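A protein record pairs a chain with a discrete description of its three-dimensional fold. The following entry can be read in just this way:
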Amino acid sequence: MASTVRLELTPLFKEMQLNWYANVPWSNSTFEYPMHLIYRGNTGATKISDLQLIDSVNVNNQRFNYIDSGQYNKTPLDQTRNYCYAVMTKGSYGNPKIKTPLINFSEITCAQPDDKIPPCKPVFDVGLKGIDCSTYTSCPVIGSTGTGNFSNTIIWNRPKDQNCKKDIRGYNIYSTASTDSTAQPFAIIAKMVTDTFFVHKNLPSFAQCYRVTAVDRAGNESKPSDPFCFDNCPNYQLPNVFTPNGDGCNDVFSAFSLRNYGEVNPCSSGDIKQDSTHQVNLQMACARFVLGVTFTVYNRWGKEVYSYQSGGENTVYIDWNGKDNTGRDLDAGTYYFVANVVFDAVDPKKRTKTIKGWVLIIR
């Protein structure tokens, strides 16, 4: 296997530094063919014939680098112009049965001496989409302290302008978990990415916003792209009846989930098809991306009889056993509740939800 010759340009004051390398199974620094050739041309060069041979380098003495200070025509490089370069390498296996020299050209690379102009602003790919909550049914997903099994893939486009495209050396990736960048600023998570996509791994959830900047060969950084956000699919639903009679079936009032589903269950109908449908319904309704819950129950006269707040050993599922705040069994009948739920979400409109309803206790 052999790579192409990679040419990197570093703009200097009225000069250009060239460095090149290649991962090849033969030697590109031999006594027979020590000279590598330097070609230069103007902006818009797309093929070697657009360039002129300006110099050669003995790589056995100078290694794979060269500084163009205008010695070719005894004129310093113009700081306002772009210059395009390519390098021809010569190598050999050292085997007389293999034809030599092995000649390769680098790609044509362009830059501007003493460049102070930032590259073009990146643009996210129009096909980049967030999570489709209408089809997302993974369960359970609770809180923002998960196992880090989530990932987001962002994709952006290379600039259409060829000069800008040739000037870019890499991309920096920034992210934040909030749309309010003043409260939680974007922080850099990856530097000098050479692809036009990035996979952000080991996240506690999908909730992240991203921006991308381009960096040119002089180290100038572009304006950041417009932000793109992935958000979670928060959900929290509560039933309206439970039977705290100790038979192991619906003994507690809980948010919908798949906890312990599939174990021996007194509530099972024994009908595989019916139980499968029930599991699908639970999966659609289960609690997802929930950070916290405050739950209060009132009797029909509006008096508080039970309160609950998640945190510590208290889960977001509630698991109320039908007793009041003093530990006394409440009478069978209808009660009213208010649940204030906090979700892990980028969109502020999705972060809180108040659920008001009624629940029937059957004994």
In short: The first strand starts at residue 6 and ends at 12. The domain at 6-111 is CATH 2.60.40.10 (Immunoglobulin-like). The chain has a mean pLDDT of 89.
